[in-house]
Amino acid sequence: MAHELNDRHPGGPTPRRIADAHVHALAELDPLTAVYLGLNPEDDRLTDLSPAGLAATADLARRTLAELDALEASAPVEDEAERRCARLLRERLTAELAVHDAGEGFRSVRNLGSPVHDTREMFTLLPTDTEQDWLRLGRRLARFPQAMAQYRQTLEEGLARGLFSAPRQVATVVGQLAEWIGSERPGGWFGDLVAPAPEELRGQLTATAVEATAALAELRDWMRDVYGPAAQGTPDAVGRERYTRWVRYWTGAELDLDEAYRWAWGQFHELDAQMRAEAEKVLAGATPMKAMKWLETEGPAIRGEQAVQEYLQGLMDRAIADLQGVHFDLADPLLKVESRIAPPGSAAAPYYTQPSLDFSRPGRTWLPTLGREAFPEWDLVSTWYHEGVPGHHLQLAQWTYVADRLSTYQVTLGGVSANMEGWALYAERLMDELGHLTDPGHRLGYLNAQMMRALRVIVDIGMHAELDFPADSPFAPGERMLPERAREFFGAYCGLSAEFLDSELVRYLGLPGQAIGYKLGERAWLSGRAAARAAAEARGEEFDLKAWHMAALSQGSLGLDDLVTELSAL
Q1: Which of 253, 276, 236 is nearest to 451 (CA)?
Q2: Confidence category of residue 10, pLDDT binned at 50, 70, 90
Q3: What does the alpha-carbon distance between residue 393 and residue 192 come to, in Å, rounded to a whole number?
Q4: What distances in angstroms separate CA 36 from CA 59, 88, 365, one per listed residue?
Q5: Residue 384, exposed/middle/buried by CB under 10 A (0-12, 13-18, 19+)?
Q6: Which residues of 159-196 are buried (b: 16+ CB within 10 A; e: fewer)?
Q7: Is 284 exposed, middle or buried (0-12, 13-18, 19+ CB in 10 A)?
Q8: 233, 310, 318, 338: most buried, per Cβ within 10 A?
Q9: Under a CB-based contact definition with an 8 Å cutoff, are residues 107 and 169 in contact?
Q10: Helix 417-433 vs helix 440-464: angle between axes, to the nearest 10 degrees?
């Protein structure tokens, strides 16, 4: 489903033509973007991670905004679909430039989503079906040492400007790099990557993997011995000014942080009461924490990576079969989604990768195993409704499917995290509403997932905006929300493993504002659905949930400032 811009939008410039041109220009500039979208398949470059590479991306954003300005100044954009695209393009690029201009790219050290993480993830997305695929992968891998040198140049520029990541992030990334390097196979994780290559290519690819791993080791040592000591004293929390900038980036909204913090505490109290009632059904007389610990050690579990991969694949396949034609109308390409095991050294949270634009690479869910052999069911089911079906896969694959009706930008690069994560959390709730979470353990897992997302809003805003635990908090009322106290609070009310929660805390501190989008995004989706239902009933019509779902999933990305309005009108 590759799209030719001139065929789709003949004539003069339109917001969608400008947006699509931006996608293709960025794919030329940033090979990682091209790989993720399935564009430029003959390319064998890596993204320029140097300060010049950051500047080039920002310059492209400014040129695109200037084109949009000129278009809108010449004549009003009357088509609603074009106006929606223009609003998204302007909001997203403006938010990206605000982050860039504040120098955030010069301190991008965090436990996921950093340039080094993104570059490694790219290799998991490359095709390996033919000898030419392997040769192209090898040429990219040969460029990996240069990419790591460019990344180090960017961090060195940050040091020169006094822009540091916090020591907690540095220590975590150093540990992750050690795990990537430390495989028994020559070439570490990259050696594992190329091990399935054709025998006649394997020797050279392994040698290239060894060189790539040596570059990782050099980066690890520099971060440990030079960057880490220089960053000592950098606070974990970013403060309200930086946080507000990041919140706009992740949510597409100007949020009232104090209102969101109060609302999340209300959610916490409601969920705590529901979890106490559900825990009784799991284990008589048990608190939620005791019931979840029992489920973790004594409840049903899947053993082994292959078995859990097959279990999750079956869960998604059954969800598609149950929902198709009843609550969703899914096109054939959406019926395929793959369960995968995440590469070693990943952060603890499961994740999803979107299909390529032509669906040659399907949507995929990824489970980090973290060295485990047993995988309790109780917290997997709701999580895979979130990551797979009807969560991220149905939204992002549907976006891909309707790219030719919108713009490529609206369904790819313009994605707003809070919109996407809000839908995925809504999807978990939908499966509960539809009766798919009747098992007490599975339902307690769902409520725990909801609790985790409410706690994310509390902890993320509380730490970065430097707020206090409120007077009615059952934990540390009146105390400042410092990271260590936030971690204790999280552990007291969320039944996931200590290793997972430790990774989560580092994630919230390293990606300020991202974690609040799940629950606040779900709030927006629920508000939009309720308004659309009320409008249908006011017209004397029955609300058609299936039609609403498909219309909602076919409108492409929107920030939270626009999402409720658009959903209400469907």
Answers
A1: 276
A2: low
A3: 28
A4: 22, 20, 15
A5: buried
A6: eeeebbbbbbbbbbbbebbeebbebeeebbbbbbbbee
A7: exposed
A8: 338
A9: no
A10: 150
User: Running DSSP on this structure, what letter comes out for residue 467?
Assistant: P
375 phi, psi to nearest 5 deg: -130, 95
| Residue 376, phi then psi, degrees to nearest 5 | -60, 140
Nearest to 249 by CA among 523, 512, 555: 512
Q: How far apart are CA 445 and CA 436, in angstroms?
A: 13
CA distance 145 to 163: 24
Q: What's the token pair of residue 95?
A: 């938010």
Half-sphere exposure in the Cβ direction for 385 (13 Å, CA): 28
Q: For residue 515, what are the CA distances in angstroms to 282, 444, 460, 512, 519?
A: 29, 21, 7, 7, 9
**Where does residue 127 rank: exposed (0-12), middle (13-18), buried (19+ CB within 10 A)?**
middle
Strand 337-341 versus strand 363-367 pairing type: parallel
Percent of the chain with pLDDT over 90: 93
Nearest to 43 by CA among 52, 34, 51: 34
State the average pLDDT over residues 454-461.
98
Three-class SS of residue 389? Answer: coil
Element (H, E) at 342: none
